[in-house]
Specification:
It is built from six helices and five strands, in the order E-E-E-E-H-E-H-H-H-H-H. The strands form two sheets. The chain has a three-stranded antiparallel β-sheet. A two-stranded antiparallel sheet has the order 2-3.
């Protein structure tokens, strides 16, 4: 009888130890710098930095009591969000509301309602083009979910005063 190779299951690797860290996010107020150094770490505005309690004892708890920091990935729902003041803030504003839209009509209503806000924030065509890359897939998914044709979606845009998709002009 010929020797047959023996097949063995590969050893299962042990899972990596659970990270005991938290994301800290610097939330500057109006007129505050866009980046800071705190306890030896550099923080940029609204960019999470992973901090481990083991490596930086007490830092996570100190951030919890600091109004300029958010601990964890979830935004505090009680935290008021001001109106955007510039094009970059307007981009974040659109990202916030577009993820909560459940119908094509909601997206178009938001977009139309922001007309004056886009002017105030000096939103340019490059910003509009960028936002199109975010809004267009959401519109497509909602259109398919609701079973709407492209003509029906176009009619919704026209109903709200938009004669063409802004990012396609």
């Amino acid at each position: 009888m010929a020797d047959r190779p023996i097949i063995t299951m590969p050893k299962q690797s042990t899972p990596a130890p659970k990270d005991d860290g938290e994301d800290l996010v610097y939330l500057p107020g109006e007129g505050d710098p866009h980046s800071i150094k705190w306890r030896g770490l550099e923080f940029k505005a609204n960019v999470p930095v992973r901090v481990s309690e083991k490596d930086r004892p007490g830092m996570i708890e100190a951030a919890r009591g600091n109004r300029f920091f958010r601990v964890g990935s979830e935004r505090n729902v009680d935290e008021p969000r001001g109106s955007p003041a510039n094009a970059m803030e307007y981009r974040a504003h659109v990202v916030d509301w577009v993820k909560d839209c459940e119908t094509v009509d909601q997206v178009v209503v938001h977009w139309a309602a922001d007309r004056d806000l886009r002017t105030k924030c000096e939103v340019g065509q490059d910003d509009i083009s960028f936002l199109g890359t975010l809004v267009e897939p959401k519109l497509r998914a909602l259109r398919l979910k609701d079973g709407l044709s492209e003509m029906e979606v176009a009619a919704i845009w026209v109903k709200h005063g938009c004669l063409e998709l802004p990012w396609r002009s």
